[in-house]
Amino acid sequence: MGSLVKPAGCVKLRAMSEPILELSGLTKIYSGGLKALDDVDLTINRGEIFALLGPNGAGKTTLIGAVCGLVRPTSGTMRAFGQDLQKDWRQARARIGLVPQELSTDMFEPVLHAVEYSRGLFGLAPDPARIEEILRSLSLWDKRDNRIMELSGGMKRRVLIAKAMAHEPDLLFLDEPTAGVDVELRKDMWHQIDAMRARGVTVILTTHYIEEAEEMADRVGIIRGGKILMVDQKDAMMARLGRTEAHIMLAQPLDELPPAIAAFPVELQGDGSTICYRGGDGTGKGREEVADLTKALIASGIDYVGIDVRESSLEDIFVSLLGEEEEQAA
Fold this sequence. Notes:
Low-confidence stretches: 1-16
Order of helices and strands: EEEHEEHEHHHEHEHEEHEHEEHEH
Strand order of the largest sheet: 6-7-8-3-9-10
Structural class: alpha/beta
Mean pLDDT: 84
Number of strands: 14
Radius of gyration: 24 Å
Helix content: 25-40%
Strand content: 25-35%
Largest sheet: 6 strands, mixed
């Protein structure tokens, strides 16, 4: 996948402490016995971007469906904007936008009519200028008179995003919004999300492109088997669970490591010409320890010609957590 391009001059806003969505004990058991959601507790703060990560079948879409009124929970409570979603759903739902994973829309409608109609469904007055702004931002203005069925898959996805944005929601769900679409659409969409967050919109997304979550999210939640495994600030999660890996290429191979070097979490690789360091787990201080290691090499009279340092990505942490869950379940 191409690299994610963040809008120039964009300043990430810090999530506010005021909750906009509160889920407590949320459970969904289908008639066949499948427990899609298992006692989920989750609070989303106003103005943040929250990324919900998990493998296929983890419960991400079911959770979104419950909040958006598409799935009836078996038990638990849901509050949005201070209102009970199961009692005052009509008022609260008008402030929630959804870009679904599936391309579900009337394929015979012209693009402009479809987006205008979505705005009208929520009782908002027509606003041609705002609709034009949305369509232009998603490169759909030139396609406004085309029927949706005439568009490419990526363009159809853009229409779903435009429809979700048309009624100016305070809380926006994006369920795998960029799955199978081009890099240009991802760039357009993130420009729009930055603009919406600047207006105070809260965004919850699921994505298979974990680097998107790593780039954009304030907090990350990991879900598996309907259970929330972890929720934390993205940076704190990466510092706490990440690790540093460094490969130091030596000028001359070693037969063994001297005690001062062996005291570090290192091992000789290959023919003794490379020292591999793996550490910093849970401390976030891996790079500091690598610096200390290089000083120890110099003090021991060991010369090196190159060093390659790599930090764990959010994807590394995600894969590691799921692997640990599988081992515990085995």
